[in-house]
Each structure stands twice: as C-alpha cells, then as structure tokens.
Amino acid sequence: MRLINRKPGRPLALFLALLPFVVVFVAYAIGSDIRLAENPSDKLLPAPSTIWDTAARLITEPDLRSGRILFWHDTTASLGRLAMGIGISALLGLVFGLLIGLLPIMRSFLAQFVAVLSMIPPLALLPILFIVFGLGELSKVVLIVVGTLPFIIRDLSQRVLEIPQELLIKAQTLGASTWVITLRVAIPQVLPRLIQAVRLSLGPAWLFLIAAEAIASDLGLGYRIFLVRRFLAMDVILTYVIWITILAFLMDWALRTLSRRLFPWAEDGL
Amino acid sequence: MSFVTVTNIFQSYDGRPILERVNVSVDESQFISIVGASGCGKSTFLRLLLAQEQPTRGDVQIAGAPPAREPGLDRGVVFQKYSVFPHMTVRQNIVAGESLRRGWGTFWGAEAKDARKRADATLARIGLDHVADQYPATLSGGMQQRLAIGQALVAKPRVLLLDEPFGALDPGTRLAMHDFLMELRAETGMTVFMVTHDLEEAFKLGDRVLVFDKPRWDPHDPSLYGATITYDFDARDGGIPFQRLKEDTHVLHETRS
C-alpha cells in the first residue's frame, strides 16, 4: 500500500500527536540529569521538578518588594498590549484590504505602496518609534501594528480579489450599491479570512511585543524574561516561555473555534 | 417594436477581435438560445448584454433606455456556478433579491418579517422550502441553480441572462430544470437569453436560436476575425420542422422521481 494512502487509526493518531511532546520532554530531562549529575548547582538546564516549583512560586507568591504577584501583572500587561496592537491591525487591515480589493482606483493608489511598506523590517523602526512615541505603551502597540498590518492588508486585499466575480456581478444585478456590496457580500466573505490572517500574525505579534518589552519596559512577559536573564534564572525563563506558548496556543485555538462558530458556511482550514 | 436592440457591436480584447458586426433585435418575452463553438464569443455577447463590459463599438439598448454602463436591476443573471451567496442561508439568499437595493442592503422590523414571508412563498414555489435554513453549499447542483434562478427572478428584472445555467447538471436534473424554467417563464413572460452548449436544449427551450460563428476565416491567423451571428433560427412550434424533439421523453421523466 502506498504511503499516501495509509491513514492512522484513532489511537495511533493520538499517540503520534503526543509523541513529539514526550520526546522533547524526555530529551530535556535526560540532558538536565546529565548536567546536574556532574554539577548539582548547574543553572543552564534546571530539572523539570525545579521548573515546576519555580512556576508554582511565581504564580502564587507575591513579590517581596511590591507585594504584587508579578506573574499575573506581567501577563495582563503583555496581553493588553498584544490585544490592542492586533485589534488595531485587524481593523485597519480589514478597511484597507476592502478598499484595495474592491476599488480599482484605491488598488492603483495603494497596492504598490503597501507592498513596499511591507518590506521594511519593523524592528529597524523600533528606535524611531521609541523616539517618536516615547517609551510608554504607545510605542509597543505601534510596533505590533507596524509589524503585522502590512501582511494583513496584503493578505486581505488578495482575499477580496479572490471573491468570485460572479458574486459581485450578481449583487449588482440585484441593485446593490458599492456600499451594500461591501457590507453584505465582501465583508461576510472575508471575515473568516481576517481571522485566519490574525491567527497567522499572532506569531510575529508576540515577537514584536517581546522585542519591544525587552528593550524598554517595567512590566510584561518579555521584560521579565530579559530581566532574569542577568541572573541566569533559567527556571524562571523557561516558566515564562512555556506560559507564553500556552497563551499563544490558546489564542489560536480560540480564534479557530470562533471562526467555526460564526462562519459555518466557510470551509475549514488547519 | 423590438425590446432588446443590439446595434452593430464590435468587441475586441487587446486588439484581438472577438465579436464583429453583431446586429439583432428581440421582442419582449422571447426566449433566445445562443449556441456556438467554444471561444466564439457567446459569453462575451452575454457580458455585453449584461453591461458587465462595454463594447468597442456599437451599443445594446433595452426597452429604449440609453445603453447601460454597469449591471443593474433591469438585467438578472444566472451563471454556471457562484450564482448564490455562500454566506447566506437559502432564505436569506431569496430575501437578498429584494433587499440588496436598499441603502443598508437589508430590511428591518415588520418589513423584514414580510420579506421573509414572501421568501418562504417563493421557496415553496421553487420547491426549496424544506432547506430554507441551510447554506447553499449543502444543496445539490440542481437545487443551487433553482435557488439562483429564484433569486434572480425575485428582483423582477426585465431581461434574464443565463450563462450555461445547466451545464454542470446531470441529464435527469437538467430535464427537470427545463420544466421548471418553462413554468416560471410562462408565469412571468420574461425576456430570456440563454447561452448553452447543448443544441437540443437550445431548440427545446428557445423561441429563437442564434448561432455564433466566424464568417471569415484566415487559415494563417485564425484569430484575425471575430465571430458574429451566422444563423438565426425560428425554433417555435410551426417554425422550421424537425428542430424540436417530437417524442415525449416519458422514460426519463419516470426514472427521475
């Protein structure tokens, strides 16, 4: 039987899905064990149990100086920035995507400009953003927007262009104006794509968030990681990395579920 | 008095002529079938009737109005596919036939209720009332085309344009759609243009059959000349004999149900 026709059964599929996680964990545990056997005070690969204890401490015990549980404050600060940045990107992306995709005049006006803008490496702009918008929240949000917006605009305008011409013609023969076509045909058709674009942008958004927080901040997940790096506190760093991964995964999952709920007519992707 | 007048139309893309010297005039509530080989400009002709494109020369007038510059309410259309809105349920698709012309593209309050009721009546008429709340993707090809025709008719166009509407359907469904279309047409008395590949279908449904072909042919450069109407058959009863099926197709009718 050809390999492309072999499908795993349910138990095997579950086993295969879990396998890479187990392998990575076991490999880490062995590596950590070897190093700790040689030098019990090694900080590079803390034992899984140490990470677990650190995580429990970080999540439950307040900071001695401020009396706040910094873990949760870091989380809310970072999530707030991320939500703001991605939200603004999604909204602007939808507006410009529709303008470029639907209106030939706007396409001529903006499509090439956006294509060029999207080639600017956003991190190269970070110093400018800090100078212009200060070191507060605004510059971090702007960095996320600058980093994710061009992609969302380009993706969405492409998706709008891919709406079958027949549907737009049909809507016109039913008397729809440009505005109504936008509202009743184009927006419902591209909203699932917008959610998809946002899901794909979450990775870059986290990257830009952590980069901005690492350089100038006093709160946030990225800030904390780069702060404790000075003490080689690998257990804290790994806890935060795992937490960020869980958060990002949950967001992705939530968006996918939302998309399926809201747009039952759209075909599923990954 | 002719209802649709096509005057001396030329159409070319990038200097390549597709249609040349097309003249035809059509009376109100005639059914016009358009046939011809692939790539001979049938669909281009339909797009010109739809005002989706502007001819290089000549013009199309409907009911004496000045030539339209973009598709509008007076022309309804059904394509081979993508003719219904996939993000609306079957009922919403029918309601859209009336509501898209509004400022916000929708009805509110009591008006919405009335529109839904009318839509349900329409759906019962076209035999789709049992799937009113489903999305078009869950319907069969024949049901989708019935929905598309119903949606186009709800807007009460003056001319209905069909671009190979039954091209993707199986023969049984196709015969059912013929009956369906003829019934609707008898009710509304609408002027219909239908592009088709199926000669039998063209002669069965049409009052007139227009054949598109290239009258001039340069063997060294086949795309040098465009196509035009080379035959204009009268396909009604009592017209040219032997252009219609005389036999009744009882067998197919019975196996269909």
Describe, in plain words, how this protein is organized in 3D.
Chain A has 270 residues and is mainly α. Chain A has a single domain, classed as MetI-like (MetI-like fold, Orthogonal Bundle). Chain A has 10 helices and no strands. In chain A, helix 2 packs across helix 10, helix 3 packs across helix 9 and helix 8 runs antiparallel to helix 10. Chain A is globular. The model of chain A has no long low-confidence stretch (mean pLDDT 91). Chain B has 257 residues and is an alpha/beta fold. Chain B has a single domain, classed as Rossmann fold. Helices cover 32% and strands 23% of the residues of chain B. Chain B has a 6-stranded mixed β-sheet, sandwiched between helices. Chain B is globular. Classes of the chains: A mainly alpha (270), B alpha/beta (257). At the A-B interface, helix 7 and helix 8 of A face strand 5 of B.
- By CATH, the topology of chain B is Rossmann fold
Q: Which strand order does the major sheet of chain B show?
A: 5-6-7-3-8-9
Number of DSSP strand runs of chain B: 9
Helical residue percent of chain B? 25-40%
Task: List SSEs of chain B in N-to-C order.
Answer: EEEHEEHHHEHEHEEH
* Amino-to-carboxy terminus distance of chain A: 26 Å
Shape of chain A: globular
Category from helices, strands and their pairing of chain B: alpha/beta
Uncertain spans of chain B: none
Write the CATH architecture name of chain A. Orthogonal Bundle
Which percent band covers the strand fraction of chain A? under 5%
Under the CATH scheme, which class of chain A? Mainly Alpha
**Largest interface summary:** A-B, 23 and 34 residues
Oligomeric state of the chains in view: heterodimer
State the order of secondary-structure elements of chain A, H for helix, E for strand. HHHHHHHHHH
